[in-house]
Design goal:
CATH topology of the largest domain: Rna Polymerase Sigma Factor, Chain: A
Number of domains: 2
Mean pLDDT: 96
Helix content: 40-55%
Number of helices: 15
Low-confidence stretches: none
CATH superfamily of the largest domain: RNA polymerase sigma factor, region 2, helix turn helix motif
Strand order of the largest sheet: 4-3-2-1-5-6-7
CATH class of the largest domain: Mainly Alpha
CATH architecture of the largest domain: Orthogonal Bundle
Radius of gyration: 20 Å
Bound molecules: magnesium ion
Distance between the termini: 60 Å
Shape: globular
Length: 380
Amino acid sequence: MLNIAILGSTGSIGTQTLEVIKHLPDCQVFGLSANSNVALLKEQINIHQPKMVVIGDQSKVKELGKCSGVSISAGNDGLCELASHPEVDLVVVALVGAAGLQPTIAALQAGKRVALANKETLVAGGHLVMEYREQLIPIDSEHSAIWQCLDGKNISEVKEIILTASGGPFLNYTGELAKVTVMQALKHPNWDMGGKITIDSATLMNKGLEVIEAHWLFGFDYDKIEVVIHPQSIIHSMVRFCDGTIIAQLGTTDMRLPIQYALTYPQIKPSIVPDLDLTKLSELTFAKPDLERFPCLKLAYQAGKIGGTLPTVMNAANEIAVELFMQEKISFTAIPQLIEMVMEEHQPIFNPTLNEILEIDISAREAAMKVANQLKGRMK
Ligand code: MG
C-alpha cells in the first residue's frame, strides 16, 4: 500500500489526485493540506479518512474544528512535518507558487518520492531540489510527456526537447491586450485549472516557468529547449533525437493522466480518463510563439540563462503581478512590464542557499509592490 500525502488537496491538481487515488487499489491517502478552503477540506477528510491534516494558519484550525483520529497542524511547519512523516511514501506537491519549495525539500531530505506539480519550486530552487533527482517525478503534463519520451533513451542522443503550448485565450485575439479583463484571461481554451496558472497560460509565463522546470528536470541547456504553439493540446510535448526523429506523447487533455503516471511510475495502469479518439481529431497545428505580444516567455528564457537568484525574482514578481491583475489593480500588459522592472533591479547571487532564496523571494515581492505603485502613478 502506497501512503500518499497531498500538499494542496483542495486545488485543481489536489482534487484530481484524489479522484485518481480512489480508483487505484494500492494507493491510500495519509495526509491532506489546504490553505484556506476549510469546507472542501472537511469533505475530503470525511471521504478519505487521512491521519494528518494541515491548514493555512492557526485561525483556520479553529474553523476546521475537531476531527476524530486526525492530527491537525498549521502553516509551513505543518506542511514540512506532513511531507517528511515516517509513514508517508509519496508526496504530491500541488501547492501554488514558491510556497512549495520548503515542503518539497523537507520531503526529499526525508527520502520520500515526490510527485511535483508545483513548477515554481524548481524555478526558485532547482539546483537544491535536483540534488535528489532520483526521487522526483513530474506531474506537469509537458514534463510527464518528455519523461515518457525519454524513457530508456540515451540523453546524449537528444537534439532538443520541444514543449508544446496551447497559446492561451489570447492566441488569436486581435483587440488590445492592455484592455483585456480578468474574466477573459481566465477562459482557457483547453484546460480547466486554478486561477494563477490560467493567467500564467494567458501571458505565456506558464510556458516560461516550464522551460526553466524542464532545464532542471532533464538537464538540458536553454538552447536545447524549444517552445511551439500547438492550440489543440493533444501532443503534450516531444523530443527530437540527433537523427531528426521526433517522439511525441499524445493523449486526452486531462491532468488525471499525468497525475496517475506519477503515482504508479514505472508501471502503467488502466485509467478513468476516456481514450483519445484519433479519428475525431480534425487537425494538429504548430506555430512559433509571438514573443513581442507575450514577452513573459522571453523574460523567462533570460532569467533561466542568467540563472542564480534571477528566476526566483522573476517568479516572485510574477506571483505579485498576477495577484494584482486578478484584483484589477494592474492591466494585463503591465504584468510583463512589472516583472521586467523588478528583474532589472536585481543583482543575482549564484548557487544561493535555501535561506538566501527565501529572503530574496520576500524582497522581490516587496520590490514588485513598489514597482506596481510606480506603474499605477504613470498610468494616471
Ligand atoms: Mg503544463
